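This section describes the prediction task in plain terms. A model, or a person checking by hand, is given the sequence of a single protein chain and must write out its three-dimensional structure as a string of tokens. No templates, partner chains or ligands are provided. The sample shown here is typical of the held-out split.
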Amino acid sequence: MKKQYSAGSTLLTAFFALLSVIWIIPVVEVLINSFKANSFVNLEPFALPNAESFVGLDNYIKGMTFGNYPFLQSVFYSLFITVMSVALILVCTPMAAWYIARVQSSFARIFYYLCLFSMIVPFQMVMFTLTFTADRLKLNTPYTIPFIYLGFGAGLAIFMFTGFIKGLPLEIEEAAAIDGCGPLRMFFTVVLPMLKPTLISVGILEIMWVWNDYLLPYLVLDRTKYMTIPIHVQYLKGSYGTVDLGATMAVIMLSIIPIIVVYIFCQKHIIKGVAAGAVKG
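The expected answer:
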């Protein structure tokens, strides 16, 4: 029986190792082609750079200076939108989840189910109405689009926070109330510190989503004034619609490096937080 278990574990390990390699191949290809001349990217996309095809950092310089829109400005908008959106989600959704978990009312249950329902509604069903509403409410700038991200990111965050809060001892909050803590003070000094694993998990997941998102900023923002990095990549075109694939690969590599670094350092917190929010309550 023990041998069968060991053989099964070995097969699973080998399978997931192979799957990991398959998933990482596109990233490796982007990195390799970012150092090759454009013609060689088209003709030999899977070949390693050689003395003839290697261009050093030229693609990176070209990608950052191409066109009339500064790449660093796109970086600023992507960074600002990501930081503000995630900050709003991490401040507002734990409060809502705490209310749902502790207040046993029909309103709380209906609100919770509506949040869950928002997770399964395809974005394509609401994108045209959303664009119209964002224009009417002046939410079509990098400084206001975080409120839209709050609405779309609330479903998953509330689901995870609610599951974790239901597993927290209620006696701790009761003791704080006896000591004179009001609701706000209790949340920020008692409840919020205990949510650290889920806060980190939700934060990382939302960062990866907002930073890489293309469709929502493309539909909502005025692209003549504001471009995030994914939108900037699309506009790396020359005359007659020609695309410099080498420069495009370089810009894509610059955009995914921060997320890869964040994920590598924080992946253990994602597993802990998802497990805690999924099994408790």
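For orientation: Residues 55 and 230 are 24 Å apart (CA to CA).
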